[in-house]
Amino acid sequence: MEKILNALPYTSAIIGAWAVLNGILHDVFVLRKHEGGYNRDLLRLLMDGHILITCGIMQVIAWKLLQQNNIYGLYVAGVASFSLLTYCGLIWPFLKSVFTILLQAGLLLLLILKFFN
Predict the structure, then answer these.
(1) Which 3 state secondary structure label does DSSP give 87?
(2) SS3 69
(3) C-alpha angle 45/49/53, rounded to 5°?
(4) How do residues 85-116 score in pLDDT, each as one tens digit?
(5) Residue 1 has pLDDT above 80, yes or no
(6) If DSSP states are collapsed to H, E and C, what string results for 28-60?
(7) What does the pLDDT look like over 41-81, one tens digit per residue?
(8) How far is 108 from 110, CA to CA, in rounded Å?
(9) Are the CB atoms for 42 and 35 separated by under 8 Å?
(10) What is the pTM of this model?
(11) CA-to-CA distance for 73 and 77, rounded, in angstroms?
């Protein structure tokens, strides 16, 4: 178990990078598919990608804090994971993001275990 928790900084960085990449790809595909000018629909769709990007950046930033055993790394990565899980719950009727849910739930579980360890 200790080995797994020691890999937590890299796990946070990889999962965060995955979220950032997915957010960027989401926005690229939204912009390519969107017809017409700037409107509320486009803004809402772009915000979906930006939620992924922002939370992913938080998890990547937490990597350095987690390496230093800084408690704020647990908080930053945990808030980002919880936010993405909430987001996935909100979009569930429209998009079943099972892989993102599994990644974020796994990271959140590891963060909780590290917190109480």
Answers:
(1) helix
(2) coil
(3) 160
(4) 999 999 999 989 999 999 999 999 999 999 99
(5) no
(6) HHHHHHCCCCCCHHHHHHHHHHHHHHHHHHHHH
(7) 999 999 999 999 999 999 999 999 999 999 999 999 999 99
(8) 5
(9) no
(10) 0.91
(11) 6
Whose structure tokens read 């990608």? 49
Structure tokens given for 29: 């595909």
| CA–CA separation, 44 and 41 (whole Å) | 5
Separation CA 55–CA 40 (nearest Å): 22
Distance CA 113, CA 117 (A): 6
Half-sphere exposure of 110 (CA within 13 A, CB side): 23
Which pLDDT score is estimated for 61?
96
12 closest CA partner among 85, 76, 101: 76
- Taking the C-alpha atoms of residue 58 and residue 77, their distance in angstroms, rounded to an integer, is 6
Tokens of 60: 């990547």
Q: Which two tokens stand for residue 35?
A: 């017809």
- Side-chain half-sphere CA neighbours of 46 within 13 A: 10
Is the per-residue pLDDT at 17 higher than 80? yes
